[in-house]
Automatic annotation (TrEMBL):
Source lineage: Bacteria, Bacillati, Actinomycetota, Actinomycetes, Micromonosporales
Cross-referenced InterPro entries: AAA+_ATPase, ABC_AA/LPS_Transport, ABC_transporter-like_ATP-bd, BCA_ABC_TP_C, P-loop_NTPase
Pfam families: ABC_tran, BCA_ABC_TP_C
A single Gene Ontology CC term: plasma membrane
GO molecular function: ATP binding; ATP hydrolysis activity
Keyword set, alphabetical order: ATP-binding, Nucleotide-binding, Transport
Gene3D superfamilies listed in its UniProt record: P-loop containing nucleotide triphosphate hydrolases (3.40.50.300)
Name of the molecule in the record: ABC transporter ATP-binding protein
Domain named ABC transporter: residues: 6-251
PROSITE patterns per UniProt: ABC_TRANSPORTER_2
Amino acid sequence: MTAAVLEARGVTVRFGGLVAVNNVDFVVPGNAIVGLVGPNGAGKTTLFETISGFITPNAGDIVLGGEPVTRLSPQARARRGISRTFQRMELFPELTVRQHVLLSRRVTHRPSRLREFVLGSYEAPAEREAVDGLLSSLGLTDVADRYAATLPLGVGRLVEVARSLAADPRVLLLDEPSSGLDETETDRLAEVLLDARKTRELALVLVEHNLSLVLGLCDEVQVLDFGETIARGTPAEVRDDPRVQAAYIGDVEVGA
Ligand SMILES: Nc1ncnc2c1ncn2[C@@H]1O[C@H](COP(=O)(O)OP(=O)(O)OP(=O)(O)O)[C@@H](O)[C@H]1O
């Protein structure tokens, strides 16, 4: 197994008297796709927000490439390679698809050129090539000059992924990426994520309600219930685990 690029070690998060995440370990091997699933209220979002830096845990550590990042802000973690998408789309309605990608790239690679971005200057040839390449790999060339406000949800989600990838992350955290997508759009998203993993030094973490997407896409899946890990393994192992099936009774159906 490849060394872990990201780890949560013994993470506990309390909200008043409620223990939302209880001493959870979560390991993301390099270049892997790992799913985080569980019934409603299991603690998935809380763990996700703790990894990305929006929640500080009561106990435990988040470790990126062997270095603790637990006390760093979400922005500082992003600069070190943890990128994320949001469940509710957070695109800028008045920026084009190309501008989203360019902005993200400049924040990461050329912060000194942000002023030019605001003033509307054109990209340098190498920059244009990189942006064009990324747009093309996600099938977004035809909509590159459309404003985000005019895009259907399925395309908007791909723009979110493109924007995250433009920052060249080591780990991309995806929060309910298939939410609101139809089957064709979900299939397209899955293709894009598999391609990103294949062509980059990138690990992906999915918090996702669509279990068939998770079981089809992930190398490993971790299942939380009431804030604790009840299973971790390959999609087949997790699907057949009696504890997982019991946890899902009355929630959503396990299996595809
Ligand atoms: N900010 C908060 N304040 C108080 N309780 C919270 C807060 N955020 C989450 N919780 C509680 O913590 C527990 C875990 O919630 P969390 O949102 O992490 O679960 P989840 O697995 O993401 O659920 P869902 O699938 O419904 O999104 C739940 O009992 C929830 O009500």
